[in-house]
Every structure is written in C-alpha cells, then in structure tokens.
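User: tokens in, sequence out, please.
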C-alpha cells in the first residue's frame, strides 16, 4: 500500500535534518500541498499535455475549446486551475475527427499526444485511479512515459499533485532547482544529478521539500542565483584603476603670410 502525505511528520523531519530548509519552513508557514481528488489520471495527463509550454491563460482557453467540442459533458469538477467542466473520455477523443481537435487550438504534436493518451488509457497502459494506487512511483513513471509527449517531469507532477505521493523529488523542475540555489545562496542552479544526491536527507518527505523549494524560489528577500558573484564583479570593476589616455597635442596651424 502506498504512503500518504503527512505534513506534521514531514515538517518535523525536514526541519531536523536541514537547518536552512527549517528557516524556509518557518518563513513560508504551513505546507499547502494537498492532492486533488476529482480528476482521473487520464484527465490530469490530458490537461498536462495542453498546458505544456503555454502560459496558464492561453492553455486554459484551449482546454475550454476542447471541452466545448463535447457539449454533452456538463458535469463540473474542481481542479487546481479552479472549477471547470470535465474533460472528454478516451472514447470520445478517439471518436472525434482529429482536425476538430486541431480547430480548438491544439498543435499537431499535442493532438497526436492526446489521441495516443486516449488509446493507452483504453489498453491499460494508463491505469485507472484504483490500479494506480497499488503501483509504486517508479512503476507509474515507467507506464506513463510510454505515452507520446509525457516525460518524467509530467509524471512527477501527477505523483505530487494528483496522487499525493510523499517522496517525489522533481530534480528537473526549474523552480525546485532555483529554490535550492536561493536557499543556499549559490552562484548557479544545481544540476539535476547533484540535486538528487543533495536531497537524500529529505527522504521520505521529498514532495513537501519540493513545495518549500517552490516557496523559496518566490522569496524576494533571498538573493537570485549568482547575485553575489555579479555584485563582486561590479565592485572589482569599480576598484580597478582606470588607464589614463594621454591626449596628443594638436599641431598649431601655420599662419599664412600676408
């Protein structure tokens, strides 16, 4: 049976093993990480595909247009993007003409990814929520990354925000890497491989640690990565003596004889 989020245990553990993270926790306050309970895995991944590489407002508009292609779906559900109409089913996605999906604003790549997602939801590659609850994090990553357009990061966001898995460290996430760099006042973001090792002490509560890294990345009172090095370079440049360039004396113009 998979473990669930335990904020009390997570905060106690993280604060004891990482003093710098303890300061971030004290500043940010209670952890607001709560898994969603309404979307299926298919719906969560379909939403993730639509939102890839788009600003939230633009992605929400396209998602709304896709849903509008299926007016028979009138049920509303609550997601982290607010209350919305439910997504179409896998059967509905495969039944509609691909060009109609494209007309909603989906790129060719995203349209093909959504159709592949639907097909794999029907053949069992994408599990139901009941089946997924019995699968390990690694098993879900292995299954779901078989879907066109779904990478490890997307599955990790699903594990954290939809399934509420407590020990996921999203080392490829820019916000997590930036938060870690700001917390430690580093000159550059840690590489994913290095962050994997650096976060070992956070086990088995790395999902909550990620949440606080996102908060650290947003904190205005923490310097941006590389800020200290840039400031030092500026000061050094100012302190460096400036070379004086001697001006050549201009020759006096010869006076004309009158």
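Assistant: Sequence out:
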């Amino acid at each position: 049976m998979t473990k669930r989020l335990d904020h009390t245990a997570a905060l106690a553990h993280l604060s004891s093993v990482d003093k710098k993270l303890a300061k971030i926790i004290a500043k940010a306050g209670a952890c607001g990480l709560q898994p969603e309970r309404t979307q299926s895995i298919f719906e969560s991944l379909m939403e993730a595909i639509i939102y890839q590489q788009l600003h939230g407002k633009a992605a929400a508009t396209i998602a709304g247009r896709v849903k509008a292609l299926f007016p028979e779906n009138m049920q509303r559900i609550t997601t982290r993007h607010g209350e919305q109409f439910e997504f179409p089913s896998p059967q509905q996605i495969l039944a509609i003409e691909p060009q109609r999906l494209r007309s909603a604003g989906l790129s060719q790549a995203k349209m093909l990814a959504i159709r592949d997602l639907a097909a794999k939801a029907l053949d069992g590659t994408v599990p139901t929520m009941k089946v997924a609850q019995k699968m390990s994090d690694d098993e879900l990553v292995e299954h779901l990354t078989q879907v066109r357009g779904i990478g490890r990061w997307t599955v990790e966001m699903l594990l954290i925000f939809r399934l509420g898995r407590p020990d996921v460290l999203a080392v490829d996430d820019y916000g997590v890497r930036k938060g870690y760099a700001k917390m430690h006042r580093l000159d550059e973001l840690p590489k994913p491989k290095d962050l994997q090792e650096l976060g070992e002490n956070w086990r088995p509560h790395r999902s909550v640690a990620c949440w606080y890294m996102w908060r650290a990345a947003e904190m205005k009172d923490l310097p941006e990565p590389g800020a200290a090095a840039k400031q030092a370079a500026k000061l050094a440049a100012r302190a460096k003596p400036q070379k004086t360039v001697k001006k050549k004396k201009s020759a006096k113009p010869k006076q004309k004889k009158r």
